[in-house]
Amino acid sequence: MKFAHTGRRGLRGQSGFSLLEMLAVIVLIGIVAGIVVNQVGKNVDKGKWNAGKAQVQKLAMSIEAYSLDNGGPPEKLEDLVTKPGNAPNWKSGYAKESDLKSPFGSAFGYKKPGEHGDFDLVFYGKDGKSGGEEYNADYGNWQ
């Protein structure tokens, strides 16, 4: 049985990828994976920040409901969950314990009386501190 000539390497040569070619492909896959992970991380932060803004509005409505029932805003946010001694018309269900934490796990800022109304409720963003930009920016119920 005779074999036809198959190019310069013939039957004895090995075809396939060199180690250098394999390393180049692995590096490129790593770069692409890094970019994808970074973009997904930003989208998660954006979603949590928007959820924090929505949570401020929900808590503000809970505070307003408490105010209507009891003649004024609560002294602290925990009064929305547990009946304080000075709230004769308190009704359960203003808020749940989990509502008092931001999507990033930090506490909301609360001040009564507020600088912008009867109360100020602030979501401090990803960093959980006052000030910041992008996803670390603050968002208040007056905005």
Tell me the CATH superfamily.
Glycoprotein, Type 4 Pilin
Strand % is: 5-15%
Shape: elongated
Helix count equals 1
**Structural domain tally:** 1
Instruction: Assign a percent range to the helix content.
Output: 25-40%
Task: Explain what this protein looks like in three dimensions.
It is a single chain. Helices cover 36% and strands 6% of the residues. The chain has one domain: Glycoprotein, Type 4 Pilin. It has one helix spanning 19-70, and strands spanning 109-111, 120-123, 139-140. The longest helix has 52 residues, at 19-70. The mean pLDDT is 87. It has 143 residues and is mainly α. The termini are far apart. It has a three-stranded antiparallel beta sheet with strand order 1-2-3, covered by helices on one side.
Can you give me a brief rundown of this structure?
By secondary structure, this protein is mainly alpha-helical. The chain contains 1 helix and 3 strands; from the N terminus they run αβββ. It has one helix at residues 19-70, and strands at residues 109-111, 120-123, 139-140.
Output the keywords:
1 helix, 143 residues, elongated, 6% strand
